[in-house]
Design a protein that fits this description.
This protein has 15 helices and nine strands. By secondary structure, the chain is of the alpha/beta class. It has two domains: 11-178, 3-Layer(aba) Sandwich (Rossmann fold), CATH 3.40.50.1970; 183-379, Dehydroquinate synthase-like, alpha domain (Up-down Bundle), CATH 1.20.1090. The chain has a six-stranded parallel beta sheet with strand order 1-9-6-4-2-3, sandwiched between helices. A hairpin with a 6-residue loop joins strand 7 (147-151) and strand 8. The longest helix has 23 residues, at 208-230. It is globular and about 65 Å long. The mean pLDDT is 96.
Length: 381
């Protein structure tokens, strides 16, 4: 059995009213100057949290400048503002982009390292600033992962920073914060979380400890995504998606993702496609490519999703892939590259970009060369 190293937040709080618990914990912590990174849509839903902290004597500065997918320049601007404020604690309250920026701000706030020097795996030297993360989507699992992703304007690529120093000290997952999400964002963020779980379970570096987490995440998300999409106020479905997302995030550090993410990233960097949409679109096609290398594991996934068993494990696995396509259709997500205005003429460039992401492709259960990558894009066209 291969060796595995697992790092998770020091404190993980899950359930309704968790944001209120975070306020109480901050007031008892002794921190004095809190810098909150969020977005305007969320800021209106956390006013009581902010007011409670201010009433308790905390100084708070709220940053709502982040818009869309974060780039290096966005991070630098927020870092400069946070340094000027002289924060002793950072809270990222939002989706994956918000939390990723908060994690990096906390790590580099009182560091002499530059952003460019920490891109990659294990290059951060440490973190001196307390960090709390609160997700408001059920997708990236960033609140429990050691990863952060930002766009580098120089080449348009999404660059990964991976380090145990990016794990929050505190993570608070409150499903009530997700009930206001629009249905489309609900769907594609949940598909992102489902992809995390599936790619961890069907991974060259899969491990029994993570398998159990991944398969339960698959069950939770696949059984509840449609309910949450159809009725955003369904708190039970929201809670199940939130838990599935946490499980997906727990898979990222020890095992990580593979070919779906490698092929999805160029869609975002070149065509500005939301990350969850890219993953959802490519997921069934990568599963079809990988099937011959992991029939039993894809059979397990299908059964976790509640698919009726076929005559053979391969039959059941194929039913599972069909079920993924069904969920994509029911959640009204694009199922082909042509739905996004991407043509066959773009495939060579996409494939060349995807092949640069060897840190992910090396995890894939079936080895890919550039012709395989092109073939998957063609299947998805």
């Amino acid at each position: 059995m291969n060796r595995i190293i697992i790092h998770y937040p020091h404190r993980l709080v899950f359930g309704e009213k968790s944001l209120g618990q975070l306020a109480e914990d901050y007031l008892a912590s002794g921190y004095k100057r809190l810098y909150v990174i969020t977005v305007p849509l969320i800021a209106g839903h956390i006013t009581s949290f902010i007011n409670k902290l201010e009433s308790g004597g905390l100084s708070i500065q709220t940053d709502v400048t982040l818009k869309g997918e974060p780039a290096f320049s966005d991070f630098r601007n927020i870092l400069a503002a946070c340094r000027k404020y002289k924060a002793d604690s950072i809270a990222g309250i939002g989706g994956g982009s918000v939390m990723d920026v908060a994690k990096l701000v906390a790590a580099l706030l009182y560091s002499d390292q530059k952003m460019e020097s920490v891109v990659g795996n294990g290059l951060l030297k440490g973190r001196k600033t307390h960090l709390a993360c609160v997700p408001t989507t059920s997708g990236t699992g960033s609140e429990v992962s050691p990863n952060a992703i930002l766009k580098d304007e120089k080449d348009g690529a999404r660059k990964g920073i991976i380090s145990p120093y990016l794990l929050p000290d505190w993570a608070y997952v409150d499903p009530e914060l997700t009930v206001h999400l629009p249905s489309d964002i609900t769907a594609y963020t949940a598909m992102d979380a489902l992809t995390h779980c599936i790619e961890a379970y069907t991974n060259r570096h899969a491990h029994p400890m993570i398998d159990n987490i991944a398969i339960e995440g698959i069950r939770l998300i696949s059984h509840h995504i449609k309910r949450a999409f159809e009725n955003g106020q369904d708190l039970e479905a929201r809670s199940k998606l939130a838990l599935g997302s946490v499980y997906g995030g727990m898979c990222l550090g020890p095992v990580n993702t593979a070919a779906v993410h490698a092929l999805a990233y160029p869609l975002g960097s070149v065509f500005k496609v939301a990350h969850g949409i890219s993953n959802a679109l490519l997921l069934p096609y990568v599963m079809e490519f990988n099937l011959s290398a992991a029939v039993r594991r894809y059979n397990d996934i299908a059964k976790a999703m509640g698919v009726s068993e076929g005559k053979t494990e391969k039959d059941t696995a194929l039913k599972g892939i069909s079920f993924i396509k069904y969920l994509i259709k029911e959640c009204r997500l694009p199922s082909q590259l042509s739905d996004l205005g991407i043509s066959l003429d773009n495939i060579d460039d996409l494939a060349n970009s995807a092949m640069k992401l060897q840190r992910l492709l090396q995890n894939n259960i079936r080895e890919l060369d550039i012709e395989d990558v092109k073939a998957i894009y063609q299947m998805a066209s």
